[in-house]
Amino acid sequence: MLFEKRPRVLMPKRLAGVAPRSALAYRGSMAAARKPKTASPDAAPYDVIIVGGGFVGGTLALTLAKQAPKGFRIALVDAAPPSSGKSVRKDPRGLALSAATKNLFEAIGLWPAVEKNAQPIRSIEITDSPLNASLRPHLLGFDDEMKSGEPDAYLVEAGELLRAVCDAVAKEKRINCFAPETVSEFDIDGFGVRVHLASDATLKGQLLVAADGKRSGLRQRAGIKTIGWAYPQAGIVATVAHERPHHGKAVQHFLPAGPFAILPLNGDRSSIVWSEEPERAQQLMAGSEDAFVAELTRRFGHRLGEITLDGPRQSFPLELQIARAFVADRLALVGDAAHAVHPLAGQGLNIGMRDVAALAETVVETARLGLDIGSPTTLERYQRWRRFDSAFSATVMDGINRLFSNDNVSLRGVRALGLGLVDRAPRLKRFLVREAAGGTGDVPRLLKGEGL
Ligand SMILES: Cc1cc2nc3c(=O)[nH]c(=O)nc-3n(C[C@H](O)[C@H](O)[C@H](O)COP(=O)(O)OP(=O)(O)OC[C@H]3O[C@@H](n4cnc5c(N)ncnc54)[C@H](O)[C@@H]3O)c2cc1C
Question: What ligand 1 atom has the least distance to the C-alpha of 350?
């Protein structure tokens, strides 16, 4: 039964570590809505209301639409207009998708649209040297370990991925989209959630999901604190075209200012993720294109011939951030709203897709039993599944960044020894490839390619 039909009774016992009830209502602080919207609100209640229709929120909406029992209804609210058809949100990032994310996309019928623009990663090389080193010795490589069957990772352009998600959402009858639109207030009690939109409409549902990114307004208004810190680094991203083919090889140079990644895109193009000191990054962004390409070439090298910029460059602040709780009363956090990690291993979005698969599995199983999908028991199961795993991944990436982003000679020696040993241990390398592909641990069924 849904919200409006039930009598009011006492609140269920609060979940451990969640915000107090009084923090779960907020009013008027989010940006005003812009017209037009893609759906008009109606009085019929939804099962799930997702705020944030980016990669993670959009994929969650699609997954529930495909897997939940008959009659299940989803509302999707996003502050930006949908990115579909010819109107694609500008985002110069290349995103590495793990094999597990690909499995999820296959299960919900999204993979054919994504695959059109996806470049398989066939090998990985890792080097560690000062910027001016004449040689960058190969320290660790993954080549044979990645050739056992299907590719373990793919590179896609962020704008194209978002377009594929938005196009699929637009076709799905069980999803009602409200975009561009924002939430001005939400109220939660033991039986349901009421979400008041900036346009004055009200949506009712059983479960509210915050997929509104790193600066999640829903998380803040729910009083959920975060743990973390800003890195003394900015992530510069750009796409480059080059003269020679990359043969699907991804390269990670650990330079003293931070990791510099060359990630293969389809065609003779690569995506760059360049971690740099924030002030230096600002100068590079403000300088001329020629000066930028000259600095880029110092790091990129000449292996693939001459390089040219193929699109805009952008700089992102980098930080580690983990929400202290992934759930509150009738609220679940997913994606960057729950955790933001250093991009050095290209895992942020893939961790978000683990949230999607875990929450979808939890919600669908609960709905099939006719139970309350927003109950503390349901949400606690999701939180148990995802919080430790996300915090662990964030910590590993933080540790790698700290170990490598410096010019300390003794640490360089330790790194060379450690990576050299890993390079000579084929079983360990296969395990690491499986780990990066998202195939280890308590993997949700959709990520293993199984239906719910
Ligand atoms: C430089 C860089 C490189 C990266 N590379 C990789 C990679 O290779 N592989 C990988 O897996 N990850 C990578 N990541 C991480 C990845 O980009 C993020 O994890 C991912 O974008 C998170 O998706 P999301 O949907 O949770 O959040 P977002 O992408 O931030 O989407 C949030 C959505 O919420 C909407 N929204 C925001 N506020 C509101 C509001 N108030 N009301 C309604 N809607 C709202 C926004 O419009 C947006 O659509 C990288 C990150 C960076 C910075």
Answer: 11
96 lines ligand 1 (CB under 6 A): yes
Alpha-carbon separation of residue 78 from 219, 279, 337, 339, 369 (angstroms): 15, 32, 14, 19, 30
- Write the burial class of residue 404 (CB in 10 Å: 0-12 exposed, 13-18 middle, 19+ buried): buried
The residues, ordered by sequence, that sit 6+ positions from 64 with a Cβ below 8 Å of its Cβ are 47, 48, 72, 74, 174, 360, 363, 364
- 430 versus 335: which is more confidently predicted? 335
Strongest mean pLDDT among 20-29, 34-43, 279-288: 279-288
Q: What is the pLDDT of residues 319-328, one digit of tens each?
A: 999 999 999 9
- In short, whether 211's Cβ falls inside 6 Å of ligand 1 is yes
Task: State if residue 264 touches ligand 1 by the CB under 6 angstroms criterion.
Answer: no
Q: How far is residue 74's CA from residue 208's CA, in Å, rounded to a whole number?
A: 10
d(CA 81, CA 150): 35
Report the alpha-carbon distance of residue 44 to residue 42 in Å, rounded: 6
Query: Which DSSP string corresponds to 140-159?
Result: EEESGGG-SSS-SEEEEEHH
pTM of the full predicted structure? 0.88
Q: Is the distance from the beta carbon of residue 80 to the nearest atom of ligand 1 less than 6 Å?
A: yes
Would you list the domain boundaries of the chain?
Answer: 3-87+162-227+320-399
Residue with tokens 């796409």: 239
How many Å lie between the centroid of ligand 1 and the Cα of residue 193?
Answer: 25
CA of 53 to the centre of ligand 1 (A): 10
Name the nearest CA neighbour of 278 among 233, 314, 308: 233
The CATH number given to 3-87+162-227+320-399 is 3.50.50.60
Q: Counting atoms of ligand 1 from 1, which one is nearest the CA of 55?
A: 25
